[in-house]
């Protein structure tokens, strides 16, 4: 199959891109000169030739340039030809495609999400042979201690550090939710959300009173652990729940810092899990979650991102102890979905009553109808309604 390549300008310098009829076969970061870059591409793709890129490749080149200019760009759907890469490497690359700009994972976390918790070194080897740097963002994978780790592209760790800085990642910290310029990061445009929500005069008044949206979104990279935490925390005060959750984690020191696996839960005795502080109902819920994770009833994180909100609610609610409200909280705060209105939530309903000066709280059915015109940003509207209820509690 014929291979073509081209050079294109970015804030890092000239980069190279190579493609065939299937898709992109390689990306090269800048060399010392354009001549050195051409030589590298010619050596890497011996049968290739420099050519004018087609429209779909030009689009990817433009997106890479925008990403390296500090814009949040999603390259996860770029057409890649991974033919020839080992199967495990392909799994690593496909998972890494889902790490958004400004966020990071450790080698161990990537391995764990692949179901290979002891394969951090193999993940590092796959990244060292990554044919698609920038698109497959190996620069967003750090050592467990937050250090940069290796980087095989020209410029080494200095290039990696610069790319992370462009995306707002602080050196030496493994961050799940970056806050550039002091504002919480989220995977949708808050400015557009507020502009849309202000078309509702009473909601606009609430927005003006509360001020900037400071909703924290901590995007999850481990669906099993996010749901396990939700189960443990249900109906408990935060401090007590955190203590019990840590005790459960401490039962499995070999699974990596701050986590356990579905297999861990199924292999562990009832006595040990109850000894960590779990009630019988929560123990059974964790076991059901683990079983449904391993048998494929629950989608993996990559598949989950392709599903709409209602399908996710239906699929995850099949787990014992996981109801609609729990999944809605996951959608808003850990999957970053912009259009979720948890109509059963007491705080949201009370916030609506207060902000809209109603005598009584709306029923869930009424609130669903009343909030339809806030779509597609009902998550942001919900946050402001929660804040209205909070301020009333605080006497403001």
What share of residues are in beta strands? 5-15%
The count of DSSP E runs of length 2 or more, i.e. the number of strands, is 6
SSE run: EEEHEHHEHHEHHHHHHHHHHHHHH
In CATH terms, what is the architecture of the largest domain?
Answer: Orthogonal Bundle
Overall helicity: 40-55%
What does the model show?
With 396 residues, the chain is of the alpha/beta class. It has 2 domains: 175 residues, Arc Repressor Mutant, subunit A (Orthogonal Bundle), CATH 1.10.10.10; 111 residues, Orthogonal Bundle (Endonuclease III, domain 1), CATH 1.10.340.30. It contains 19 helices and 6 strands. The strands form 2 sheets. The protein has a 4-stranded mixed beta sheet with strand order 3-2-1-4, sandwiched between helices. A two-stranded parallel sheet has the order 5-6. Strand 1 and strand 2 form a beta hairpin. Helix 4 crosses helix 5, helix 9 runs antiparallel to helix 13 and helix 15 crosses helix 16. The radius of gyration is 24 Å and the shape is globular. The chain starts with a strand and ends with a helix. About 4% of the residues have low confidence.
